[in-house]
Amino acid sequence: MKQTTLCTLVDGRENKILLGMKKQGFGQGKYNGFGGKIKNAESLEQAAIRELYEELGVQAEEIRKVAEFTFLFPHVPKIKRWDQTVHVFLVEKWKGKPKESREMKPEWFSFQEIPYGRMWQDDRHWLPLVLEGKKIRARFVFGEDGESIKSMELKQVKKI
Hints:
The chain is mostly beta strands. The protein contains two helices and eight strands, in the order E-E-E-H-E-E-E-H-E-E.
């Protein structure tokens, strides 16, 4: 199964989260965190930091793994490789100013105004828990439309 990373910048003093509007490729037109595939012999953390820099232009100083998900798309041909394990990180300290890339347009949101209606449907189930400081393991099976959740198993864990 493909291994991927997902990073989200969080400003805890302001209770804000930085999301990016995906401009191309998988997830186009949705708000999401920043991340992607692991290359060669990269660790999860190295991949997350690299992807964050490529998509946002910031250098993570502190990165914390908060969740791990299995995303399954049984109605999508396996050759497309949509099935994946996603390793989710929060970044609360970074260098540089977030900037738009060819792939993502960043936008800050208060925790109370996160645009769940314009995000992947799974986000509304786990993101509030992560923002409360909880660690999550989950499995999401998506429906025929590749969007709706057919089934899910979500549990809080002490360690990721």
